[in-house]
């Protein structure tokens, strides 16, 4: 993930424009320029705060919703080894969501508000998770491609100017590498298996390739607020640059598997040393992001149900803690 | 939808014996025991630590970053607190 849904749309007035005449703003920018980290209680422009709350919480939502497509296969993993790996990976995604929610909360937003924003459909999450996992090979493709793209996106975020976000990303990136490698290994097993297994791996690559490229977000030319986020060092590398890096490392990995990419225009350009891909269908991206993907409704419904089903646990735990605290203070009084 | 969060806890992990506990992040839990259990699941899935501390975030008293300069100013103008302030002749050993 996860910059894509996070680029503020054109005409969005919810992020205030900085007041260039504010000396605090100039001092803030000097700190950022000097690569100093900004910490929760430091003064920061409202736009910086709002941009970060939005980006970090959408990133967190993506991790949480991202548990669903893979969770779909836990009970049907083909071996105990694969089941243990998948369980650990999905647990990691939950952990990543929690690191990120905590980082967002340091900016003065409550967890309940963030969860509400997700469940009410107000907040966005990465559109990649609105695609279905139809076969077991999709679990391999997600690890290899989706987590691979996520790593490309997330590594520069480890150097983000906001301390708590950067520190959370360091933890996330450390864990993400296992996710990608288990996915590639899974694809390798299928690609070297029976013709039917190889066909399954190819089918998964065909379906996940373009959505993975879309994860990097709109082309730089169409990305309006990138420059300010760059100046604030929230964003370090442009969407197109990251996408190109991903294509360059991933295409040879796919060829090693003996698979082909669903892009007739894909070619190696010897002059630049880059793999050049064909045009991306941005109308599909816009459609999925706007809520009309194959699984948008299902994903939100699953999150709402999980939240509602867990309500009694949250209430009971709080009541139990209150009772124990009351008992302890009574005992202390006696 | 309920709006009330469980209390927030800061989590500190000792990565191995002999080292100090280090702040790793925060989480929500109803009480300290639950916070310790959750800290294990959230922050220690890969042998990151041998000991966990949790403290209610609300109980932490912090210095004000806006007053950083006056708060820490005495550290910079008292150079005589540092060993390099003192000139010792080359011939003197073990000091």
What does this structure look like?
The complex is a heterodimer of chains A (334) and B (95). By secondary structure, chain A is an all-alpha fold. Helix content of chain A is 63%, strand content 2%. The longest helix of chain A is centred in the middle third of the chain and has 29 residues, at 163-191. Chain A is globular, with a radius of gyration of 22 Å. Chain A starts with 22 loop residues before the first helix and ends with a helix. Mean pLDDT of chain A is 92; it is low at 3-11. Helices cover 22% and strands 21% of the residues of chain B. With 95 residues, chain B is of the alpha+beta class. The mean pLDDT of chain B is 90. Chain B has helices at 32-43, 68-76; strands spanning 8-14, 22-28, 51-56. The A-B interface holds A 39, 41-43, 88, 91-92, 95, 98-99, 102-103, 105-106, 110-113, 115-116, 119, 167-168, 171, 175, 307, 311, 314-315, 317-318, 320-321, 324-325 and B 1-6, 8, 24-28, 30-31, 34, 41-43, 45-46, 62, 64-66.
Concise account of the structure shown:
The complex is a heterodimer of chains A (334) and B (95). Chain A has 13 helices and two strands; from the N terminus they run ααααααααααββααα. Chain A is mainly α and 334 residues long.
């Amino acid at each position: 993930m996860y910059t894509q849904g996070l680029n503020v749309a054109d005409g969005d007035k919810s992020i205030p424009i900085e007041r260039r005449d504010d000396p605090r703003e100039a001092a803030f920018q000097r700190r950022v320029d000097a690569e100093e980290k900004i910490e929760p209680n430091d003064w920061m422009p409202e736009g910086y705060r709002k941009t970060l709350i939005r980006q970090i919480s959408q990133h967190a939502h993506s991790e949480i919703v991202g548990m669903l497509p893979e969770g779909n296969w836990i009970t049907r993993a083909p071996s105990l080894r694969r089941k243990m790996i998948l369980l650990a990976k999905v647990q990691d995604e939950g952990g990543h969501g929690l690191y990120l929610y905590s980082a967002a909360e340091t900016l003065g937003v409550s967890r309940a508000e963030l969860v509400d924003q997700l469940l009410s459909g107000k907040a966005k999450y990465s559109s990649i998770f609105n695609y279905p996992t139809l076969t077991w090979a999709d679990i391999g493709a997600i690890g290899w491609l989706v987590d691979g793209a996520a790593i490309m996106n997330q590594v520069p975020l480890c150097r983000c100017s906001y301390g708590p976000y950067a520190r959370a990303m360091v933890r996330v990136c450390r864990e993400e590498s296992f996710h990608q490698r288990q996915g590639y290994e899974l694809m390798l097993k299928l690609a070297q298996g029976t013709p039917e297994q190889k066909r399954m791996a190819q089918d998964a690559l065909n379906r996940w390739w373009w959505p993975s490229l879309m994860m990097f977000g709109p082309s730089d030319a169409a990305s309006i607020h990138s420059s300010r986020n760059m100046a604030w060092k929230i964003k370090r590398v442009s969407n197109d640059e990251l996408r190109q890096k991903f294509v360059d490392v991933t295409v040879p990995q796919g060829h090693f598997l003996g698979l082909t990419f669903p892009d007739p225009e894909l070619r190696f350009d010897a002059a630049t040393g880059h793999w050049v891909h064909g045009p991306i269908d941005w109308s599909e991206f816009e459609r999925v992001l706007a809520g009309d993907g194959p699984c948008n409704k299902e994903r939100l419904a699953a999150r709402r149900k999980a939240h509602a089903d867990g309500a009694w646990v949250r209430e009971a735990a709080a009541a139990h803690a209150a009772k124990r605290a009351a008992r302890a203070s009574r005992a202390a009084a006696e | 939808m309920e709006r009330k969060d469980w209390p927030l806890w800061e989590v500190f992990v000792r990565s191995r014996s002999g080292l100090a506990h280090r702040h790793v992040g925060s989480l929500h839990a109803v009480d300290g025991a639950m916070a310790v259990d959750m800290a294990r699941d959230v922050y220690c899935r890969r042998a990151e630590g041998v000991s966990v501390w949790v403290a209610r975030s609300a109980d932490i008293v912090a210095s004000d970053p806006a007053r950083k300069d006056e708060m820490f100013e005495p550290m910079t103008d008292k150079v005589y607190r540092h060993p390099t302030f003192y000139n010792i002749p080359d011939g003197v050993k073990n000091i």
